[in-house]
């Protein structure tokens, strides 16, 4: 079955997003997104569907939905005067993974995120504690202060011993996997094409995309069939070949323009790639 991909708008200067809706009276279409979603329903009447799970909403209903899991909320509340609240907090998997990797204090979150592959329902006490924090977020405060509130929420989630998983098996559509990989590959390619002339590293690429270095490495191997360094070398040398074909720029200038500061090194790599030296390649093209 085909589900709608919902793209979460990014707040400028922020790595996560919080949205609140009151007196919600419409049902959400079954959808998925690339981010984790922490969804809190307060005083809403109806049902929630997560993958293969379907259940009634509690008075305080807090669930953690993993990336790519189809989900929807079907409301019975139709009276706009009824005081209901719907909170959604979204954050990217790569961003939180990097936070966990870099910050020992967040390592407990790793266990929670692994469990969330099946969706997690938290206790009413936890839901009330999270609600108290969310409804008092001051968006006129600094971004660091707002992030601190999210960290506090994460700490509360990790301490909930009564949290339960909802879906018997992890649910992820083939279509959503394809969309996710396509989006990542497009971002990878755009970053490399814009920065191949400078000394970019796998670490810099991982930070730019909020992914771990190991995840970037696997993505290159799976999609391109080669490592990051091999792919970067091909990009640089392909640009160099085009400049040799279409300009009269010196070999030394071209080497520097595509990211090689040592011309001898550039000559060796170019010959290994094209089986001709740069000058031989230029002469052959002009013939």
TrEMBL record:
Q: Does the keyword Transcription regulation apply?
A: yes
Q: Which domain of life is it from?
A: Bacteria
Q: Which residues form a coiled coil?
A: none
SMART domains (alphabetical): HTH_ARAC (SM00342)
Keyword Methyltransferase belongs to the record: no
Which InterPro entries does the UniProt record give? Homeodomain-like_sf, HTH_AraC
Q: Which PANTHER family match?
A: ARAC-FAMILY TRANSCRIPTIONAL REGULATOR, TRANSCRIPTIONAL REGULATOR MTLR
- Which named protein is this? Transcriptional regulator, AraC family
User: What is the species listed in this Swiss-Prot or TrEMBL entry?
Assistant: Photobacterium marinum
Q: What is the lineage of its organism?
A: Bacteria, Pseudomonadati, Pseudomonadota, Gammaproteobacteria, Vibrionales
């Amino acid at each position: 079955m085909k589900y709608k991909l919902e793209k979460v708008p990014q707040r400028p200067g922020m790595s996560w997003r919080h949205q609140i809706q009151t007196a919600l009276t419409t049902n959400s279409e079954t959808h998925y997104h690339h981010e984790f979603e922490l969804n809190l329903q307060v005083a809403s009447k109806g049902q929630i569907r997560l993958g293969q799970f379907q259940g009634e909403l509690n008075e305080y209903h807090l669930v953690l939905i993993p990336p790519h899991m189809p989900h929807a909320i079907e409301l019975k509340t139709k009276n706009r005067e009824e005081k209901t609240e719907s909170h959604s907090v979204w954050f990217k998997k790569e961003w939180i993974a990097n936070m966990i990797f870099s910050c020992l204090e967040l390592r407990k979150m790793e266990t929670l995120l692994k469990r969330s592959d099946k969706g997690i329902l938290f206790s009413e006490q936890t839901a009330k504690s999270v609600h108290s924090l969310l409804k008092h977020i001051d968006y006129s405060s600094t971004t660091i202060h707002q992030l601190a509130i999210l960290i506090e929420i994460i700490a509360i989630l990790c301490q909930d011993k009564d949290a339960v998983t909802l879906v018997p098996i992890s649910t992820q559509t083939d279509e959503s996997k394809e969309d996710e990989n396509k989006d990542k590959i497009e971002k990878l390619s755009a970053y490399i094409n814009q920065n191949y002339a400078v000394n970019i590293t796998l670490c810099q690429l991982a930070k730019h995309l909020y992914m771990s270095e190991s995840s970037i490495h696997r993505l290159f191997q799976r999609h391109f069939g080669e490592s990051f360094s091999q792919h970067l070398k091909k990009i640089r040398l392909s640009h160099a070949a085009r400049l040799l074909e279409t300009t009269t720029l010196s070999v030394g200038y071209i080497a520097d323009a595509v990211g090689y500061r040592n011309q001898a090194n550039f000559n060796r790599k170019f010959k290994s790639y094209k089986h001709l030296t740069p000058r031989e390649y230029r002469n052959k093209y002009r013939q």
